[in-house]
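It is worth pausing here to work through a concrete case rather than discussing structure prediction in the abstract. The textbook approach is simple: state the sequence, then state the predicted structure, then interpret. We follow exactly that order.
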Amino acid sequence: MYKNIPQIKCTLTTGTQRRKIMNKLYVFFLCGMFCTVTMIVQAQTTIPGTNLTWSISGGTLTINGTGGIPNFAATGAPWYNERASITAVVIGEGVASIGENAFRDCGIASLTIPNGVTSIGKHAFEWNQLNSVTIPDSVTSLGIMHFAKIR
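Step two, the predicted structure:
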């Protein structure tokens, strides 16, 4: 009746073999996740059109290099999609200015602006959770609503 149907040999693994296979898959998965997270968190990215780089590690956004942080649209900063994980900002000594909307709607609780920054654009720190801010004497220009709507 079933003469023309090919025979398929099926081998079942034992419980021990199955566990070994699952353990290897689990370790492989964890290693892949760790490497991905490490690359995302530690990557430095250039701010387009500038000599500045930014990176996020442990909730701290760090801006380094020379020149000014440019103006951005309300949701245009390159780190905007990471804003929920940002709790602090470190601005390097070579940064000369902070543009409009640069850190808008992040979760920044503390901020130190280095000596050498001369201007802060409008809405630069709007919608944050700032508890303390240190502004050096070098800042001579502040845009409107630069610290507005602090939560």
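Step three, interpretation. The first helix runs from residue 15 to 42. The longest strand covers residues 60-69.
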